[in-house]
Design brief:
single chain, about 270 residues, mainly beta, Hypothetical Protein Tm1070, Chain: A, 2 domains, 5-stranded mixed sheet, 5-stranded antiparallel sheet, 1 helix, globular
Length: about 270
C-alpha cells in the first residue's frame, strides 16, 4: 500500500505539520490544519486507536466520526491504519454526501486489523465532487463499562499543535502510577528519518524517578506503560520529552484502573 500521509495528529486527536523536506516520497508538503473544514491537502492522524484487550478486563476499540461540511458535492475520505513501524496495514474510503456524516464503528475491525495503530485520514480529491472538498473528523476510543450499561473512553476534538524537535522540548503533567490509576506514554515520529527521544519522569517531591530513550522508526510510533521505567508510585508527576533527533509528538494517557476511563494529554512545548 501507499506511504502514510503526513502526520497531523488527533489522540484520540492532535495535529502537527511537516516540512516539505520530511514528506514521504511522491507526496507534496501540506499546510497546517485548522479546527474546521480541513482542506483536501490536509491529513488527520488519530492517536490511541485500538482493537484489542487491555488491563483489568477491558477491550478497547475506536470509532471515527466523519463530516462533510460542503453543500455542493460529495467528499471521498480515505482512512488508513498505520502500524508502529510506519507501515499501512489497511485502508478504506468513505464517500460522504453533501452535508452528510458517517460514524465508523470499530474502525480497525472494519479493516480486519487488530492491536494499537495510528489512523491517517485524508481527502481523495479525484473521487470527490465538491468544488473545494474538505472534512471534519474526530475519534473516540473506549471500552465497555464493568459497572453497568455504556462505556468509558475519551474523545478529543481536532486542534492544531506544533511538533517537538531537537530545539523544542515538551512536557506533560499529571502522570500517575497508583492502585487507582496507570499511565501510558507515547512518541509519534513525525518525519521520514529514525527518531530518538528521551522521556524523563519527575516526581514533584523526589525529582527525577526514571528515564528511558525511545527509538522510533520513520513515521512510526511507540506507546508503553510508564511502569516500565518508573518503580513504585507516582502522583502528579511530569513527563519531560528531551533531545529529539527529528520532529515528533509526545503524549500520555492516564487510565482509571476500575472503570478504564482515560485522560489524554499531548506534550506541549515547554520553552
Amino acid at each position: 500500500m501507499s506511504s502514510p500521509r503526513r502526520l497531523v495528529l488527533s489522540s484520540l486527536a492532535l495535529l502537527a505539520a511537516l516540512p516539505a523536506a520530511s514528506a514521504p516520497p511522491g507526496r507534496p508538503d501540506r499546510p497546517a490544519l485548522t479546527t474546521t473544514g480541513l482542506s483536501p491537502s490536509a491529513s488527520v492522524f488519530v492517536l490511541g486507536t485500538a482493537n484489542n484487550p487491555g488491563l483489568f478486563d477491558s477491550y478497547f476499540t475506536t470509532d471515527v466520526f466523519l463530516v462533510n461540511p460542503n453543500g455542493d458535492g460529495k467528499v471521498a475520505v480515505v482512512v488508513q491504519a498505520i502500524s508502529t513501524v510506519g507501515a499501512v496495514d489497511g485502508q478504506f474510503t468513505v464517500e460522504l454526501p453533501p452535508g452528510g456524516f458517517e460514524v465508523v464503528k470499530n474502525v480497525l475491525g472494519r479493516m480486519g486489523v487488530r492491536g494499537a495503530h495510528v489512523l491517517a485520514i485524508f481527502v481523495d480529491a479525484a473521487a470527490s465532487t465538491a468544488d473545494t472538498p474538505s472534512f471534519n473528523a474526530w475519534g473516540y476510543t473506549s471500552t465497555p463499562s464493568k459497572c453497568g450499561p455504556g462505556d468509558y473512553g475519551v474523545t478529543v476534538p481536532v486542534v492544531t499543535l506544533t511538533s517537538l524537535d531537537a530545539e523544542t522540548d515538551g512536557a506533560c503533567v499529571g502522570a500517575e502510577i497508583s492502585t487507582g490509576k496507570r499511565t501510558n506514554v507515547g512518541v509519534v515520529n513525525n518525519s521520514a528519518a529514525p527518531l530518538s527521544v528521551t522521556v524523563r519522569a519527575v516526581d514533584p517531591a523526589k525529582g527525577a524517578v526514571g528515564e528511558l530513550p525511545f527509538d522510533v522508526p520513520p513515521w512510526g510510533f511507540t506507546q508503553i506503560s510508564l511502569s516500565n521505567f518508573v518503580s513504585g508510585t507516582l502522583e502528579n508527576g511530569a513527563l519531560l520529552f528531551r533531545n529529539g533527533t527529528g520532529r515528533y509528538v509526545g503524549y500520555m494517557v492516564v487510565n482509571d484502573n476500575l472503570s478504564n476511563d482515560a485522560l489524554f494529554q499531548v506534550a506541549l512545548p515547554d520553552r
